[in-house]
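Hypothesis: this fold can be encoded by more than one sequence.
Test: take the structure tokens below, design a sequence, compare later.
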């Protein structure tokens, strides 16, 4: 059995980096939920360090990571800088040596750069959550919340960003992707219209997404469509 722990950075009383009403904690929760969903669809057992907008200390994140034999711990964050022009993605490991975590960090970085993000490289950092965990651990800074273009990219490409990170994890674990496709519900969408768009039935979409009421979908909801 393959086990991965996804860490949604910050949360609760700690919003992380902030830009207006936008918070790092909420951004990484949105992204992380997509990653978790896609990994589970590919047979990976995934745990999360938080379920919603709650406070979880760094110590408790590490404590959770050390309770189980995880193959990887992946911590999700967004960067920030006083210079509003700062942009791009960077992925951190505790020590930049040949190791499973360095290989995964390199895969994640490459996939996100290929998606269109500026390459800030794979770097070393003495971050608590990647230093203190027993399992291989990486931390990804998915663009700058202080940069308007990075935020647009994050919002418009969030499904592709999640897929890029999932693909890196699956490749590192030698798991063949099931090739599932996802759709983010927009205002005015209906399950029927979405099913026709992707050549599926409403019954298939209902079953794949465990929908209790197919008439109740909402903007921002992410549905598996293939």
């Amino acid at each position: 059995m393959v086990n991965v722990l996804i860490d949604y950075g910050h949360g609760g009383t700690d919003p992380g980096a902030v830009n207006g009403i936008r918070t790092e904690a909420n951004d990484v929760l949105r992204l992380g939920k997509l990653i978790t969903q896609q990994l589970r669809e590919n047979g990976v057992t995934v745990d999360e360090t938080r379920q919603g907008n709650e406070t979880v200390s760094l110590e408790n994140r590490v404590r959770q990571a050390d309770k189980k034999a995880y193959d990887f711990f992946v911590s999700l964050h967004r960067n920030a800088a006083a210079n509003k022009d700062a942009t791009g993605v960077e992925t951190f490991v505790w020590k930049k040596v040949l190791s499973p975590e360095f290989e995964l960090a390199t895969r994640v970085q490459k996939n996100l750069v290929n998606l269109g993000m500026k390459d800030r490289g794979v770097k070393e950092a003495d971050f608590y959550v990647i230093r203190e965990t027993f399992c291989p651990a990486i931390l990804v800074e998915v663009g700058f919340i202080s940069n308007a273009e990075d935020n647009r990219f994050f919002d418009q490409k969030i499904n592709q960003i999640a897929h890029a990170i999932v693909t890196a994890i699956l490749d590192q674990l030698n798991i063949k992707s099931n090739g599932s496709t996802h759709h983010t519900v927009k205002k005015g969408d209906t399950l029927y219209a979405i099913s026709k768009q992707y050549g599926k039935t409403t019954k298939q979409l209902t079953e794949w997404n465990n929908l209790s009421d197919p008439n109740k979908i909402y903007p921002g909801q992410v549905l598996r469509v293939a």
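Residues 24-41 form the longest helix (18 residues). The first strand starts at residue 3 and ends at 8.
Hypothesis status: open.
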